[in-house]
Amino acid sequence: MVHLGPKKPPSRKGSMADVPKDLLDQIAQLERLFTVNSDSLKKIVDHFINELDKGLSKEGGSIPMIPTWVMNMPTGKEAGTFLALDMGGTNLRVCEVKLLGNRDFDITQSKYHMPESMKTGSSEQLWDYIADCLESFLSSHHPDEDLEELHLGFTFSYPCTQTAVNNGVLQRWTKGFDIDGVEGKDVQPMFENALKKKNLPIKVTALINDTTGTLIASNYTDPMTKMGVIFGTGCNAAYFETVGNVPKLEGLVDLEPNTLMAINCEWGAFDNEHVILPRTKYDIQIDNDSPRPNQQAFEKMIAGLYLGELLRLVLLDLHDQGHIFERKDVSILKSAYSIDASLLSAIEEDPFENLTETEDTFLNRFNLPTTEPERKLIRRLTELIGTRSARLSACGVAAIAKKSNIDACHVGADGSVFNKYPHFQERGAQALSEIFGWDSKPEDYPIKVQPAEDGSGVGAALIAALTLKRIKDGLPVGMTAEGTKIMNKRMQV
Question: What ranges make up the beta strands (E) of 303-435?
Fold first, then answer.
C-alpha cells in the first residue's frame, strides 16, 4: 500500500505544463471570477454585521433572526433521562438521552422510515404515525416498565413562529411535506393529542430547530462553544444574544435586558438584496431558475445543494464557447442538478496526477470522454468553487464573533459540506485568519470551527432539560400573555 501522507489543500498550478494556452487563459479567468480576496471578505463581514442587527430590529430585515426561547446555556451539571425526536424529510429519529451531570451523556436511538404517502396524507395520520414510532421505541427499550412522565425535545426544522419554547405555529411545509390542516396552527397540541390517545407518558417540553440544538449540545460538552453552525445541503447559524439587544422583543417579554436568548439566524437569506456578495453570472442563473428567486442568496453561494449545479453551468458554458468537450455529446450534463457536491469532493480527492478517477466518473456518469488538460481545468474549477464556499461561510462566523465582541471561542459545526468536503475546514480557517489578521499557526487560531455534537438528538434533549428547570424555577419560557396576543394579531394580518 502506498502511503500518500497527510492531505494538504491542493494546488495544481505547477502541473499545468501540458495544458494548452486557451485552457490556461480560461483557468485564469475562472480564478479571477471565483476568488474572494481578503478585502472583499472584510467588506462582506461588515455588511453581514449590519444585516444581523437589522434582523433583530423592530423593522426586521432579510435575515429573520428568530428568538428561540432557549434562555440558558447548559451548566454541564444537567442530569436525567429525556427523549428527543427529530422529524426529517426521510426518517424519524427517536433518542433516549441520559444526561450524566458531568458534561457527558449516553444515548440510545432508533430510526423509523417516513413513508412517502404520509407526507401528503392527513394531519391525524402524521401525528398518529409519530406516536406509533415513539410507542414502538418505548416498548423496545422499556418493556413492561411503568414509566413516569418523560419530557421530550422535538426537533421540528420547518419554518415556525414561536411565542414560547414549547409551541410552534407552522408557517409552511418544506422537504416535500404538503399536509392539509397543519399550516397556520400550533403543532404541539396536535402532537400531544396523538400521544394521549395512546396513553404515552410523554410531554412535549421543547420545540427546537436543529441549529439551536447544535449550539446547545456543543456547548454542553465544550463550554468554549459560542455558536452552532450548519454547512450542509443548506446553511444556518445560532448564537446567544442578550434580550436588551433584541429590539423586536420590546413589549412582548418580561425579561431582564441581560437575559440570554438563543437566536436562530436563518442566515441563508443574507444579502437577498444583492448588495455585497460577489455573484457570477452562474450564481444569478441558479437564483433565477430556482423555485424562489431573490431569496436565500447566501445559501445559494455556499451550500452543498448548489455547488454541483455551479460546476455544471460553468462546464456547459465553456463547452458552448468551444473551449472543452469539443464535438462531444453533453446532453446528460444538460440535466439540471445532475451534479451534486459529492462529485466535487471526489474530483478534489482524485489522487492521480492525470486524474484518472475523474476521467472514469465523467465517462460512467455522463458518457463524456475527457482529455487530461480538460480534467485539470475541471479540477481547478472544483477547487475554486469549494474554496469560495468555505471562505464565504467564514464571513458569517466572523460577523457573529465581531458583533458579539467574541475574541476567542469554539464554533460547533455540522452538515455534509463541513464534515465531508475536502479542505473545507482548513480553507474556512484561513479565511478567518485573513479577516481577523491572525499571524499564529492554525492550531493556535483563537476562533476554531470544529465538529459539533448531535444537535437534533442530544441538543433537543438538553433543551427539554433546560426548559423543565426554568418552569420548575418559576421563570418564563416565552412571551407574556399580552405579548402572545400581540404576536397572534400580527400573524393574522
Answer: 409-414
The predicted model scores a pTM of: 0.92
Q: Which residues are catalytic?
A: 157, 172, 210
Query: What is the pairing mode between strands 235-242 and 225-231?
Result: antiparallel
State the DSSP code for 5. Answer: -
Judge contact between 346 and 361, C-beta under 8 A.
yes
In tens, the pLDDT along 159-207 reads: 888 999 999 999 888 888 899 999 999 999 999 999 999 999 999 999 9
What does the alpha-carbon distance between residue 422 and residue 346 come to, in Å, rounded to a whole number?
Answer: 9
For 184: left if phi > 0, alpha if psi spans -120 to 50, otherwise beta; the answer is left
345: its cell numbers: 469532493
353-357 contacts at long range (C-beta below 8 A, 24 or more positions apart): 353/15, 355/379
Torsion from C-alpha of 295, 158, 114, 181, nearest 10 degrees: -110
Rounded (10°) CA dihedral 228, 221, 224, 163 = 40
CA 159 vs CA 87, 107, 183: distances in Å:
13, 27, 10
Span 143-149, mean pLDDT?
A: 89
d(CA 325, CA 331): 12
Distance CA 439, CA 434 (A): 9
Which one-letter DSSP state was computed for residue 353?
Answer: T
Q: What is the DSSP letter of 186?
A: B
Phi, psi of 390 (to 5 degrees): -65, -40
pLDDT tens-digit series, residues 34-48: 999 999 999 999 999
The C-alpha cell of 173 is what? Answer: 411545509
| 3-class SS shares of the chain: helix, strand, coil, % to 5 | 45, 15, 35
Alpha-carbon dihedral angle through residues 252, 258, 264, 266, given to the nearest 10 degrees:
90
Nearest 5°: the CA angle 99, 103, 107 is: 40
C-alpha cell at 261: 436568548
Q: Is the predicted pLDDT of residue 5 greater than 90, yes or no? A: no
**Rounded to 5 degrees, what are φ and ψ at 137?**
-65, -50
Residue 70 has pLDDT above 90, yes or no: yes
Q: Is 67 left (phi over 0), alpha (psi -120 to 50) or beta?
A: beta
Other CB atoms within 10 A of residue 245 CB: 15
Q: What are the C-alpha distances in Å from 62 to residues 66, 321, 385?
A: 12, 37, 25
Residue 215 buriedness (CB in 10 A; 0-12 / 13-18 / 19+): buried
* 456 secondary structure, DSSP code: I
**Length of the chain in terms of residues written:** 493
List C-alpha distances in Å: 298 to 36, 319, 389: 14, 28, 10
**CA pair distance 160, 214, nearest whole angstrom:** 18
> H-type helices in 236-371, by residue range?
281-289, 299-302, 304-320, 341-349, 356-366
Q: Output phi, psi for 124, to 5 deg.
A: -65, -40
Sheet strands (E) in 13-78: 66-67
